[in-house]
């Protein structure tokens, strides 16, 4: 509905001819006394301003405290990109961080059959009978994973209580350190082999008398260690679930970008400490 406009003649009030700068007010509106406005407005403004700056100071102080606590935490615990306090000190300068897309995600054809669309290269999965390079690639990942470290490095890494005869390796002439990423890969490789007994043999044959004749205990150790390693890393990269018509439902799509440390750079450091120029020389008593 359109608004109506009155056609009656508008009545105007005469404008005062006095040049006093005041606009005329309707007769039923009384002007506010200026003196009262001064009394109200002058004390309120300073208090409002003071309250504003007090709140601002409190807010900024909270930000400073938070940033200081974060900085102090980073100083004490370290970061993923610069190295944690628990990382081996000499290895920290070799840490490089970048985004990498994972491979090996599962997919489904029109009949609902699962397959690996992108197994990655070099190859770490598949039938070892058809792809003998798989075993070589796994062995290459963890070769040289135990290195000699100096007494000073041992104290810095573990504390004085670990610098004793109990931790001295007489066969290698020094304190031995293994880097946990490579230990975890060793465990994963062991479980991989146990899933294919027709090729690698049973757990008893595969271990060949190692681990005190209790291969199941070693497998349990590996499973438990991998569990803790994954939970400790706390990777919160979101992975979507893609719909496959052949499957008739959604299935996780794991080939997403993750923030990673450069594996080859850290492996290069380890190999140099194993038998390169950075290797610690053994001490024979």
UniProtKB/TrEMBL annotation:
Pathway: Mycotoxin biosynthesis. Keywords: Glycoprotein, Membrane, Transmembrane, Transmembrane helix, Virulence. One of its GO terms (biological process) is mycotoxin biosynthetic process. GO terms for cellular component: membrane. Its main location: membrane. It is found in: Membrane. It comes from the Eukaryota. InterPro entries: UstYa-like. It is a single-pass membrane protein. It holds the Pfam family UstYa. PANTHER family: CYCLOCHLOROTINE BIOSYNTHESIS PROTEIN O (PTHR33365:SF4), YALI0B05434P (PTHR33365). Belongs to the ustYa family. This is Uncharacterized protein. The lineage of its organism: Eukaryota, Fungi, Dikarya, Ascomycota, Pezizomycotina.
């Amino acid at each position: 509905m359109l608004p109506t406009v009155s056609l009656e003649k508008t009545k105007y009030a005469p404008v005062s001819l006095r040049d006093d700068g005041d606009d005329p007010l309707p007769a039923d509106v009384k002007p506010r006394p200026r003196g009262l406005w001064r009394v109200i407005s002058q004390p309120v403004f300073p208090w409002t301003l003071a309250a504003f700056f007090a709140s601002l100071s409190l807010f900024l102080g909270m930000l400073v405290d938070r940033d200081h606590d974060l900085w102090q935490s980073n100083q004490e615990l370290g970061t993923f990109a610069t190295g944690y306090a628990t990382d081996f000190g000499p290895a920290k300068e070799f840490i490089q961080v970048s985004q990498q897309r994972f491979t090996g995600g599962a997919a489904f054809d029109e009949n609902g059959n699962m397959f690996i669309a992108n197994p990655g290269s070099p190859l770490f999965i598949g039938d070892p009978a058809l792809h003998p390079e798989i075993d070589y690639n796994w062995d290459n990942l963890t070769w040289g994973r135990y290195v000699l470290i100096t007494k000073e490095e041992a104290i810095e890494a573990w504390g004085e209580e670990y610098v004793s005869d109990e931790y001295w390796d007489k066969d290698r002439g020094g304190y031995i350190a293994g880097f946990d990423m490579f230990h975890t890969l060793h465990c994963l490789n062991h479980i991989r082999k146990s899933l294919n007994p027709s090729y690698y043999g049973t757990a008893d044959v595969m271990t060949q008398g190692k681990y005190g004749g209790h291969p199941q205990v070693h497998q349990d150790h590996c499973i438990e260690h991998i569990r803790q390693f994954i939970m400790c890393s706390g990777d919160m990269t979101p992975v979507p679930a893609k719909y496959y018509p052949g499957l008739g439902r959604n299935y996780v799509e794991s080939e997403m970008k993750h923030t990673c440390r450069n594996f080859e750079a850290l492996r290069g450091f380890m190999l140099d400490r194993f038998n390169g120029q950075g290797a610690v020389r053994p001490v024979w008593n």
